[in-house]
Amino acid sequence: MLSATEVKKIAHLARLGIEEENVAAYATDLNGILTLMEQMGDLNTDGVKPMAHPMDQIQRLRADTVTETNQRDYFQIIAPQTENGLYLVPKVIE
C-alpha cells in the first residue's frame, strides 16, 4: 500500500503538481491499480497465445505501391556535398 508520503514523492519525481487535498484520492487510485496488476500477474496464462488486439480483427492496409518517382540523382546534384552517392554533413559529435 502506498502512503501519502510515497505518493507525494512519486509526484515530485514525475514533476506532477498534486494539491494536498487530492493526495489521499491519488493514493487510493494508485493502490487499486497496483492491486489489479498483482492479480493479473498471478493469473495462469499458459497456453494463451499473445495477441496484438483483443478483438479478432484484420488491419486494412493500402496497397504497397510506388507513388513517387526516384529523384535521387536530382537531390544529389543540389546537395552541398556528396561523395560516392552519400550526403556529406558536418561532424557534430566529438
Report on the structure:
The protein is mainly alpha-helical. The chain has a domain at 4-42: Histone, subunit A, CATH 1.10.20. It has helices at residues 4-13, 23-42, 72-78, and strands at residues 82-83, 86-87. The chain has a two-stranded antiparallel ribbon with strand order 1-2. Helix 1 packs across helix 2. The protein is flat.
Helix-strand blueprint:
Elements: H1 4-13, H2 23-42, H3 72-78, E1 82-83, E2 86-87
Antiparallel strand pairs: 1-2
- Low-confidence stretches are none
| Series of secondary-structure elements, N-terminal to C-terminal | HHHEE
* Computed Rg: 27 Å
Percentage of residues in DSSP E strands: under 5%
**Proportion of helical residues:** 25-40%
Using the alpha-carbon principal axes, give the shape: flat
Number of helices: 3
- Count of extended strands: 2
